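Posting for a labmate who doesn't have an account.
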Amino acid sequence: MAGRAGRAGTAGRSGKARKAGWFFLAAALAVNLHAAIVSAETVDRVLAVVAGQLIMLSDVTAVRALGIIEPAGDADPIGSVLSRLIDRELMLAEVDRYAPPEPDAADIDREVAAVRARFPSQKVFDDTLALSGYDVTHVREIERQNLRLRAYLDQRFNAPDSDATRRQSLIDDWVAGLRRRTTIVNLYTPQQP
């Protein structure tokens, strides 16, 4: 009988030890999971919504890395590029309403080649595209839209007697009006990395 009681006592202690072991394992996993979540790198996030169109952190990063949009020399390059992307989205919505002619494929090729020329080699360009999540087709589409936008601005704001400063002032006033009439949700704060 003493043997059975001893084994039962040992089994009881063994079961408690197993439960304690599982508890410590679960606690360790929870701590590691929390640490992983806290130190996780943000891959992408929505920075703004312009008339229902999303502008993602990856969009800001890509156009900046590719030299398509340069920061305006601000201390906050993400905010600067985001602001320009918001304006671009507003203007493109107007362009789509009036549908200027499509640019020639050769003009788009020239613009894509200019983007490529900013990089010392094809490999660096390809690596930058890969890091941004873009491909050449995406860059072509951006440059196609840019050419359409330029054609629209030239048509709308090309008064023969206006100089470049006056033209830019007219465009700025127009964009300010678009900002007032359009729902823009800017989720970016400069404290974000």
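Reply:
Got it, the structure tokens are right above this. Confidence is low (pLDDT under 50) at residues 4-11, 20-39.
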